[in-house]
Amino acid sequence: MDVYDYNHICNHSDDGGRYSFKMQPTMIIFAVRALLNALSPLIGAEASLGHAVGPDWAKDASEKQIEEWSTKGEEIRDEVDALIKSTFEKKYWELVRQRLGLKKQDSEDVQNVIQPLLDLMQAHGLDFHGTFRALCAFRPEHLDEDGEGDSKGKGEAYSSVLKDVDSLDQGTGMTCPMPSGDALAGAPNQISPVQESTLAVPARNITYPTPLVALLARLTPPDLVNPPSRERACRDILAWLEKYAVRIAEDQETAGWSLDEREESMKNVNPRFVLRQWVLEEVIATVDKDNIAGRAALMKTLEMATNPFKPWGAEGDTRPEEELTEEEREERRFCGVGTKNFLGFQCSCSS
Known about the structure:
Elements: H1 24-49, H2 63-73, H3 77-100, H4 109-124, H5 128-135, H6 151-167, H7 211-219, H8 227-254, H9 259-267, H10 277-289, H11 291-306, H12 326-334
């Protein structure tokens, strides 16, 4: 999934949304119910007999007896449904806490931090994996770098932050042309003069005034968030970051977790590289064009896909773009969201 959308369907043949992202828990229950239906005679027989059955356990049973066993076995359906629901929710929220770098188990995390973030991503079309990866570097003190700490100071500081973010969009600020992909294979970039596709990644040599401005710019690139909606998105993100910062501080105090440990832990569960559709299309085109260059590009992509958490593209490196190697620049590009026409389009499960 690229931009977060709980209605996203990854199976092209599922025109009814049966296997959409939000329906995954329901489909787990559906699958287990089907399994229970198949095993209900066996479960019912063991429940009635009080012991495990052996080979040929139903060989001499009448149809009526098997039907009675089936009915008996299906009596546990509600219990199984409840167990699946509780197990899924517990594990799901546990994994999301890991992605957010929250160590302490807090019963209010879902209501105060996790669900509001998912709602935020849904409302503003933020990139799913990119959002979590960007939050790895966030620290509570980033919110105080421009303000005095009181509500008035915060408001004025955030207005300044929003102006800084908006100024980055002027001209060609946040987009760059998409090369052919040969650079990953060791060949020079070939940029077609008629190619208009752009990548939702920062352009070269942008200097961000503060880490907070850098974070907002990374979360809301204009290729994903329309400029008229960007201020609203940034304000909503800032409001959420206030709550997130409090929760991070609690972990520091109660769990004894340093900010460096939190960042490292988050980077180990939030991928830097995601095998997006535009990457697949570009690699396929490179292979079709030149087998030798294509093989190298394919191997590089495979390496990145099998090691998605590594800091590809000199992540976090503040050197000017021209000081990076060509391979590092291409790695960084491959970690971008890609062109809009491929967003939300992935190979289906049968591809």
